[in-house]
Structures are given as C-alpha cells and as structure tokens.
Amino acid sequence: SRTVITFGTFDVFHVGHLRVIERAAALGDRLVVGVSADELNLRKKGREPVFSQAERLAIVAALKAVDEVFVEESLELKRHYITEHGADVLVMGDDWAGRFDEMKDLCEVVYLPRTPAISTTALIEKISAS
Ligand code: C2G
C-alpha cells in the first residue's frame, strides 16, 4: 500500500485546503498530514494562526480523506517525518515547488497546483473589511 504525506498550517480552513488534501489522498491508499505547530507558524509567518494548533489538528483529523495527523514542529524535520510515517509520496502545493526536491532519494515528491483566488490571508482581509 502507498502512504502519502503532506504538511501545512491549514488555518481558517477553506476549500483550497480541502482540495489539496483530497488530491493528495487520491495519490495513495493512506494520507498522513503534518499540521504545523503554533510555534513554527510564528517563526514562518511572523504571526500566530487564527485557530490554535489543537483546533487546526482537530479539523484536519476529522476529514474523510485523512487517516492520521501529527504536529509538524520544524520545517527541517521533513526527512524524519517521512521516514517515521513510512511515506512513499510527499505532496505539497506548488507555492513550495522545488523546495523539497532533496527528499527525492527518500520518496516521490509531487507539487500540486494551488486552488486559485483563495487564501487564509485574503479571507482575513475580506472578513475584517466587512
Ligand atoms: N493550498 C492550496 N490552495 C490554496 C491555498 C493553499 O492548494 N488556495 C495548499 C498549499 O499549497 C499547501 C496547503 O494548502 O500545500 C496548506 O497551505 P498552508 O496552510 O498555507 O500551509 P503552509 O503554511 O504553506 O505550510 O512544511 C510545510 C509547511 O508547514 C507548509
């Protein structure tokens, strides 16, 4: 059986997140998702997510396409997470294109096109403007 792994913040969960998760799941038999820790987000984006790590994990874990979730503590631990979860394929949205090519000795690496015109940042702006 083929295990797929993907990573993300999945803050203010939206249909772009759902689509990438569903397309990732379709590439294998089992999907494992690393949800980035609040601490990692602060380092990565300079702000705290709207939803806490526990909330984001609960939402992602409840999805039909998702078999297992874990907390992604660091971007540098990809290799460890891939091995630990026995992943055959690493999937990321194409905003990360090329960034994880060094994992190609461990597993297949696939970048999927992002869903256009939707993002957490745009949603936050839309909500605060209304
Ligand atoms: N995504 C998408 N379409 C959108 C928005 C997001 O396909 N309109 C995808 C991204 O490409 C990513 C996933 O949804 O694959 C999660 O996106 P983010 O929550 O923004 O994740 P990010 O902060 O990029 O974290 O180790 C990698 C990081 O943890 C990725």
From TrEMBL:
Pfam families: CTP_transf_like. It comes from the Bacteria. InterPro entries: Archaeal_FAD_synthase, Cyt_trans-like, Rossmann-like_a/b/a_fold. Keywords: Nucleotidyltransferase, Transferase. Residues 5-126 form the Cytidyltransferase-like domain. The keyword GTP-binding does not apply. GO terms for molecular function: nucleotidyltransferase activity. This is Adenylyltransferase/cytidyltransferase family protein. It comes from Nocardioides marmotae.
